[in-house]
């Protein structure tokens, strides 16, 4: 992969590039370590100075981690700038990666990033990994399956080819081919839009396992528009050298959360207090600024917040 491609979501404009990009993370892989040093152009925030908080470390429930001494997090690693692969195709980077490392160091644990498909993450929490940290919107439905620690706030953004050649309008997507990622809030919303269309002017929802594939579908003309979390869509647009652009305003701003096994209150509390400490000491904001996504910052981490906006 050319070093000119800034990330796995740098949109592949040929079929060969598309397939090589998707292949970076289609099987589950584990990446341990907390060093953010890299020889690539894309590097994470340096978390090496973060110290273990002995009091918070005591909150980690003994025997409740998938692997003792380790804090593992399931992520869908084509979701830049939240989590994606650097130019080497194997080093996870992004603000969720940095947050995971920072939380783990605060709790005196070794971070372990596990590549997973987005729609498999919630069912695997507590068995394959301890947490799900993957730009996941907190919803009432998801809170029936897992507990959440709020840590970010984002909306949804539509993106089209430069100049909007299909003359699409966010208020009426009937007749459009809409690319989304499987299992996301945006997929649910796109399906709702499609159901409201007349039979002869249906919107076609094209669901992809990887966010990179959804964005690439628009760049290559297979789809008319893609719909994704606002920081993800914004980053994808920035990688296309002006080939894509946002359509309309950011919609449906909502909190995102770190998913924890339902009922594991001790681990949820440990994570919540670790995130709050990172917010209070400024590390959290430094991480977000490093990736240019500070507009979604929260000042309070909550377990299962009642206010999801």
Report on the structure:
It is a single chain. This protein has 309 residues and is α/β, with parallel strands linked by helices. The protein has nine helices and twelve strands. The strands form two sheets. The chain has a nine-stranded mixed beta sheet, with helices on both faces. Helix 5 (185-195) links the parallel strand 9 (177-181) and strand 10. Helix 3 crosses helix 8 and helix 3 (95-106) packs antiparallel against helix 9. The protein starts with 14 loop residues before the first helix and ends in a 19-residue tail after the last helix. Residues 1-30 and 32-41 have low confidence and may be disordered.
What is the element layout, followed by pairings?
Layout: H1 15-22, E1 30-32, H2 54-57, E2 70-75, E3 78-79, E4 83-85, E5 92-93, H3 95-106, E6 110-115, H4 118-124, E7 131-137, E8 146-161, E9 177-181, H5 185-195, E10 204-208, H6 211-219, E11 225-229, H7 230-238, E12 244-261, H8 265-280, H9 283-290
Parallel strand pairs: 2-6, 2-7, 9-10, 9-11
Antiparallel strand pairs: 1-6, 3-4, 4-5, 7-12, 8-11, 8-12
Helix pairs in contact: 3-8, 3-9
What are the salient characteristics of this protein?
three-stranded antiparallel β-sheet; alpha/beta; 12 strands; 309 residues; single chain; 9 helices; nine-stranded mixed β-sheet
Our Rg estimate from Cα atoms comes to 19 Å
Enumerate the spans where pLDDT stays under 50 for 5 or more consecutive residues: 1-30, 32-41
Distance between the termini: 39 Å
What's the rounded overall pLDDT mean? 86
Sheet with the most strands, sense and barrel status: 9 strands, mixed
Number of strands: 12
The total count of helices amounts to 9
Which percent band covers the strand fraction? 25-35%
Shape assignment = globular
Strand order of the largest sheet: 1-6-2-7-12-8-11-9-10
Instruction: Give the helices and strands as they follow along the chain.
Output: HEHEEEEHEHEEEHEHEHEHH
Instruction: Estimate the helix proportion, in percent.
Output: 25-40%
Decide which structural class fits the backbone: alpha/beta
């Amino acid at each position: 992969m050319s070093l000119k491609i800034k990330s796995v979501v740098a949109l592949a404009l040929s079929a060969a590039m598309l397939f090589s990009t998707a292949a970076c993370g289609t099987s589950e892989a584990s990446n341990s370590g907390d060093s953010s040093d890299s020889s690539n152009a894309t590097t994470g925030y340096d978390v090496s100075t973060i110290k273990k908080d002995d009091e918070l470390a005591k909150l980690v429930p003994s025997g409740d981690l998938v692997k003792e001494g380790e804090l593992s997090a399931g992520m869908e690693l084509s979701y830049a700038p939240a989590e994606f692969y650097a130019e080497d195709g194997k080093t996870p980077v992004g603000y969720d990666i940095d947050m995971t490392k920072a939380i783990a160091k605060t709790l005196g644990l070794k971070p372990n990033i596990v590549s997973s498909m987005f729609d498999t993450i919630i069912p695997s929490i507590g068995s394959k990994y301890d947490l799900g940290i993957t730009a996941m919107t907190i919803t009432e439905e998801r809170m029936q399956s897992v507990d959440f620690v709020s840590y970010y706030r984002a909306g949804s953004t539509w993106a089209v080819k430069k100049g909007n050649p299909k003359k699409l309008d966010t208020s009426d997507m009937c007749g459009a081919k809409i690319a989304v990622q499987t299992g996301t809030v945006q997929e649910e919303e796109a399906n709702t839009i499609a159901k409201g269309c007349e039979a002869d002017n249906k919107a076609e929802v094209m669901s992809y396992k990887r966010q990179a594939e959804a964005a690439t579908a628009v760049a290559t003309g297979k789809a008319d528009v893609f719909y994704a979390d606002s920081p993800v869509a914004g980053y994808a647009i920035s990688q296309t050298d002006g080939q894509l652009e946002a359509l309309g305003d950011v919609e449906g701003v909502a909190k995102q959360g770190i998913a924890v096994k339902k009922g594991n209150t001790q681990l949820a509390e440990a994570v919540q207090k670790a995130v709050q400490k990172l917010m209070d000491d400024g590390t959290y904001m430094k991480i977000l600024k490093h990736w240019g996504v500070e507009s979604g910052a929260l000042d309070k981490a909550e377990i299962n917040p009642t206010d999801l906006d």
